[in-house]
Prior knowledge:
Number of domains: 2
CATH architecture of the largest domain: 3-Layer(aba) Sandwich
Amino acid sequence: MACQQFDLVADRLQISHDERDRLKYPKRSMTVALPIHRDDGSVQVFEGYRVQHHLTLGPTKGGLRYHPDVTLGEVAALAMWMSWKCALTGLPYGGAKGGIAVDTRKLSNKELERLTRRYTQEMIPFIGPQVDIMAPDMGTNEQVMAWMMDSYSMHMGYTVPSIVTGKPVNLGGSVGRREATGRGVAYLVNRATDTVNLDITKCTAVVQGFGNVGSVTAYSLAKYGAKVIALSDVNGGLYNAKGIDLRKLETYLAEHNTVAGFPEADPISNEQLLTTPCDILVPAALERQITEKNAAKIQCRILAEAANGPTTPEADVILDQREEIFIIPDILCNSGGVIVSYFEWVQDLQSFFWTETEVVDKLFRILETAFTQTLHLSRKQTMSMRQAALSLGVSRVREAKKMRGLFP
């Protein structure tokens, strides 16, 4: 998917084939074996990955995900998207991504810590505050980042908070980092309602995925005045045409660890959720959710891609013909996380920390610039928002590589 999207943009930008290879191929791809002691005394080996896409604009930046289906190809695609995302938003980073093929539900907390520390140890030759900075992604959190920072710091002999972002605030994390992606999605949705002449206080919203990003997006949209009528997590979905009471759902979620079974809404399948009539549809779960099979059935005005790669290239062809749907592409829509990760890195390097008001204000300023530039290019050259966002990201990396030249 990532390569298909890149090739379409490269054709439009008339990039030569030798230049394409430089832009497309990852700088480094690592696969590591991760043996750990299980609590029962046995030893199990897990497979870990890290892909650094390019180092032209600065160190690489990207999340670390723990999921049983993680593969090197998936990690490489996510690293490439991260490159275009950082360039689009003007951050001095190349893209990276990491992952371990593991089902964390089958590990104890101690086993998870051993696995994290072992992965960090294996990565030490390839990471550093000026080389590659990790962050949380699917299946990882503040605690995992704290273990990584501690492992790297023990190796160096002194505390290095800037080696990861998404840490606990009392270990050098930034206020507003956890909420950053969801806040950014909601901000851009609000901007998009202005663009397509919708009143957000009269809009209905559907959110697929009620993890960190999806839940913060839902709460933020509700603050703007939108009514959330359907949402889901890995165990099931909910629908209530009158709106779901998010406060009551939060209490239910804390008790049951899932939204499934919430008594004040009807159950709904993932397929039904994606095709529910609404003003705002937010896929905030896994990639490849909107495909050629359901793209024609989607009934929304704004499609806000909070997940990475939720729409396949085949679905894009169908959606491009549906002018009534305004798409906020993933590399723009979910960029709030990496923007505030950048802020955290900057604060760690300076040992000077900002208030949450400053963080949110700076976040919205960068998002506003990126949104305006993407929308302007989309209208000027009559291309989709995805093509416009990717064109801006790819062009900036291409220009930087040209200016730096080829060594030696």
